[in-house]
Structures are given as C-alpha cells and as structure tokens.
Amino acid sequence: MNLSQHNQFSSKASQLLxxxxxxxxxxxxxxxxxxxxxxxxxxxxxxxxxxxxMLVTWLSHTSFIAFIAFVLTVFPLSLVFPYPRxxxxxxxxxxxxxxxxxxxxxxxxxxxxYHLSTSALPExxxxxxxxxxxxxxxxxxxxxxxxxxxxxxxxxxSNFTWQRLEQLKQLKFxxxxxxxxxxxxALSHSIHIWADANLKFDITKQDNVLPLSYPTTAKSLLAKNxxxxxxxxxxxxxxxxxxxxxxxxxxxxLAKCDDYAQKNIDIFVFETDKQLADFIANKTVxxxxxxxxxxxxxxxxxxxxxxxxxxxxxxxxxxxxxxxWQSQRRSIEIKGIDELSFINDQxxxxxVIRVIKGSDTLISHDETxxxxxxxxxxxxxxxxxxxxxxxxxxxISKVDGLIQPSDLMATSVGQYLNCKAIAKQxxxxxxxxxxxxxxxxxxxxxxxxxxxxxxITLIDSDGNFKNISAAEGFSIEQxxxxxxxxxxxxxxxxxxx
Length: 497
What we know:
Elements: H1 2-41, H2 48-72, H3 74-80, H4 84-112, H5 121-134, H6 136-163, H7 165-169, H8 173-197, H9 201-204, H10 218-224, H11 230-236, E1 265-270, H12 273-280, E2 286-294, H13 297-306, H14 313-319, E3 332-335, E4 353-358, E5 370-375, E6 384-391, H15 394-397, H16 405-416, H17 420-426, E7 439-444, E8 447-452, E9 455-459, E10 465-469, E11 475-476, H18 482-492
Parallel strand pairs: 1-4, 1-5, 3-4
Antiparallel strand pairs: 2-6, 5-6, 7-8, 8-9, 9-10, 10-11
Helix pairs in contact: 1-2, 1-3, 1-4, 1-6, 2-8, 4-6, 5-6, 13-16, 16-17
C-alpha cells in the first residue's frame, strides 16, 4: 500500500514537472515579448557584432531568467505539494507576479534608464506617482488591464499545456529549442569576453540593458551614452569624454516672457579673495559656503554666463551662439572675459545683467541692483571645489545644498526677470527659488561632475570614478551609483541633437 502511494506520488510529480517545462516555455515567450522594450529604450548598436550580441543575449538571458524563476518557485512546489489543480493555479499567480514585475522594470528602464533597485526607489516612486496623478483613471485602467491580460494568459496556458501534455511530449521542439538557447547563452558570454578584452564598446555598453545582467562600469556607462571618444581610445589608449561632435540644439519654439520684470543684476567675479573682501566690506551681504565651482576658470565663466555646463562650450563658441534668452529687452553685458566678448556685439545700453570679471577698481555697482559676488577658485588638484558666495538676496543664503555658477544665471533670468519658462527651457542651471532636490550635474576638463547632497562623483577621461565630499574634499569609499549617474548623464545631454 505504501509502495502504491509512493508510485502515485511519483507519477503526479513527474507529470507536473513535464507540465512545468512546457509552462516555462510559454512564459519564456511572454518574457521575450515584454523584454523587447529594453532593446528599443537605448540607441541600437551600430556594428554587426553588436547587433548579434544584442539578439543572442536577449534570447538567452531572458530565457535564463524565466527558467531560474521556474526552478526557484514552481519546481520545489511540484515536489513538495504535487496536486495538479492547486499547483497550476499557484503557478499562474506566481508567473503573473513575475511577468508584471518584469513589465514594471521595463517601463522604469524605458523612462529612467535604469532597473528597479532600492537605491533608485525615490526616483521610481516619483515617476509612478507623476504618471498616476497626471491621468489617474487611464493609468489605473491600463495597469489593471496589463495584470489581467497576463493572468488570463497564464491560466489559459496552464490549462492548455496540462490537457495536451501527452501530445506535447511527442513534439521534438523542446530539445531543439533548449539546444538553441544554450548555444545562444554560450555565444553571448564568449562575445562579451572577447569584446571586453578588445575594447569593443558597441558590445560592452549593453552590459546593463537587460535586468540581472552584467554590472555596469563607469566606462561602459559613458560609452552607452556616447560620451567616450572611442576612436581616440583605440588609437592611443587614451579615452576622453567625447564632446567634440556635440551639436547644441536651441529649444524651439522659445518660450515668451510676457511678465518681464525690469531689474538690474550684477554678477561680480573677483580674481583674489582680498578683492572680494574689499568689495563686500561696507555692504549688507548674505553668504553661503556651498558654492561649487569648477577650478578651470574658462569652464566656470562659460557656465556662469550661459547657465549650461562646459560640455556645450566648444559647440557654442565655435558658432558664437548667443545665450538663448538674449534679446533687446533682456541684454547681457560681459566685462573682463575675452573668450565671450562677442556677446557684447549684441548688447545694448539697457543691459539688465552684467557679468564682470576683474578687480575692485574696475567695478561700479548700483546699490539698488541685485548682485552676486565670489572669487575664482584657487589652484587645486580637484576638478571642482567649494567656496563662498555672497549675495544681496537673503533667500540665496538659505538655499539647502550646493549652488553652481549656472544656477546664478538661471535665478537671474527665471526669478529676478520673471522669465521662468525661458530659464527652464534653455538652461541646466536651477532657479534657486524653486530648488527642490539637492543634486546636479556639471562638466569640466573632460570630467563629468555629478553631485547628490554632500557626495560628488567624478568620472574622468579614462572612465574611472571617484567620490569626494563637497564640504571637506576628502575621498569617499563608496560604490558607483548607477541610477543616479544615468539620470545625471541624461540631464547633461539635454540640448544635444
């Protein structure tokens, strides 16, 4: 009797395992369909090997994830609890949860450029909350429909494969499909090993496209976002962040400034701390020690005037492109900055913003004007440094977090001149009156600079990275925050064609 029960138990378990294989095949097909969105989320590879790697990795890696999910969930349940009706229902629910999670991850990756993770939880929740609040009814209907469609698919497949199990066992499709997927799996890893050894960035930049794949490095992250000069690297093994062929695209149509406020703003840049101290000696000023400026003076001055990182400097100076907000009513005057002197050709006597670099003997200031004042960064081994910023606006001294030179122009145009739409549309600097989060991005001396609270991440020309403290300047031993850097690089590239 015990032997008979054991045989019956074994028979049910065997049947369930056979059914589980076909149920997994069906879910592999569903996973491949959902994961197609990952392939369209980024720019496609350009080489034949890159395209081949993308396809074989998509097939093998997605199939592997679906198979592992079966092994970790349905397989042990089938052995411990071999009751077909219950197992098939439980498997359908588990598979629905897995496929729904994959769909959510694909949606997040398509919109944000990174996968679900605890470190990216605030950004992910913000994305989902924005989608829900912008169109609550439609979002709820679509989300519910996706989950119900997946559940319906799972129930149909679960019942169909169980009822036709004997017929399915006769098919030779399974063994051929398994052999093909194993071949793709081996081929994808072989191609990646070859690409990593031979610096084929068209392949290695795909490392983090699919979920649970290769961990992204700083170098592959830059390559993925077209910020590596790969040709130079192949020739001289000297990788440089690529801004040689950047085309600065002025947003169109340009927003109008109907409620323009007539104010004068002065931004004083002193060459020494003594000159700065002499200037503020007899003035009512407010200060902050959280002013983050590049140590390269030319890059800093460009960012100050245009409200943009120096990533765009080469393209803008080559074409002598004026600041996007420049007009007869909103004119800017430049003094002491030879590289940007061409802007004065379009300036008028009623200039409302003056950027003046020099000593205190060159400065005349109307006491009724708003002003910012700071000194140039002294020699430093770092790409950026923090210094003191003085302002006539008490509100600026109360801003939480770091302030960049580009923020001063964004605040001048957006807040003091009341042209908020133009500032938001044409600059990466932040209106300090509207600053909501303590993070930002900059670029200087071929280095991507991204900060989040007190931590500054620098990705240098070799694709290496370093974290430093903004307040103290010491190195921070911390890993690469991929979601944050993806977001920063996307922001840096806002105005590229």
